[in-house]
User: Fold this.
Amino acid sequence: MFKHVVMWRFKPEVVESDKQLMKAQLEALLERVPSLQSIEVGLNVAAGEAVFDVVLTTGFADELAYRAYADDPAHLEVVAFVRSLVCDRAVVDYRVD
Assistant:
């Protein structure tokens, strides 16, 4: 199994409805991208300087399946929307043996 984890910070002007729309669009990828096996999207509830606002955790059969997801047009469409809302991003990709 291969995991892809992304965390973002929203731009200060992003409104709650756009945060919820981003979450919904990301979650909808499970039905739209064949290589995506699992997805979880969480909006942060903690406070502090080190926190991120949202986390995405996705699961794939292997790294090749992840690469198919990364290039999938449905994913790229959501990426464009996400980029309009965020100012910081952190990523971790790893294999689960």
Notes: Residues 13 and 85 are 9 Å apart (CA to CA). Strands lie at 2-10, 38-43, 54-60, 86-95. The helical segments are 16-32, 63-71, 73-85. The mean pLDDT is 97.
